[in-house]
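Dissemination and training. As part of the outreach component of the grant, students in the summer workshop were shown how a complex can be specified as a set of sequence lines and then modelled as a single object. The example used during the hands-on session is reproduced here so that future cohorts can follow it. Participants entered these lines:
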Amino acid sequence: DGGITQSPKYLFRKEGQNVTLSCEQNLNHDAMYWYRQDPGQGLRLIYYSQIVNDFQKGDIAEGYSVSREKKESFPLTVTSAQKNPTAFYLCASSIERGIGYGYTFGSGTRLTVV
Amino acid sequence: RKEVEQDPGPFNVPEGATVAFNCTYSNSASQSFFWYRQDCRKEPKLLMSVYSSGNEDGRFTAQLNRASQYISLLIRDSKLSDSATYLCVVNIPLKAAGNKLTFGGGTRVLVKP
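and obtained this result:
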């Protein structure tokens, strides 16, 4: 079955560490996105990529980095510069480049700073 | 002002009743609209798109009012399984090419026996 796979499901990070969240899709979608969700709040866009080897900052990109070397993969690195990284991270993809179609989401990664 | 605003609720609904709630958006250039459902600690899932003429999917009816810049979702004959957070999603044009989906904070619905 086609879909988006995020791993790991739960991740614990020590202060000062960089961690990388994986996102892989086999839907042949061009566009991919990373969102962050804090408890009781909506989703906020971190980064998005409309095509391989290109990506753009979203609304809250500081302290995060991404790469898009393959169409199927869009990993997110949470760097030590991100001061409050504890959140639920969601990866999504869409068939069009964000134009009018709904997104398919992965099941998310819960990141906790310990 | 937030780009997409929703009443966070919760809306406490007796089983079998009808519940409706709105979502307002600020960008008049927004082109497409969606309702997503999110269960506790799960990813959002597309419930339905919202068309200009309004559309219905079983017990769910979505409406769009472009003049007043809001969309609505109505749930008839509420089931216990309808308990969830409903996210309003608006497609907002980017300054460069393309669009992005912007999410409201969600409206929580609790259906009780």
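Chain B has no helices and eleven strands. Students were then asked to discuss how this feature might be tested experimentally.
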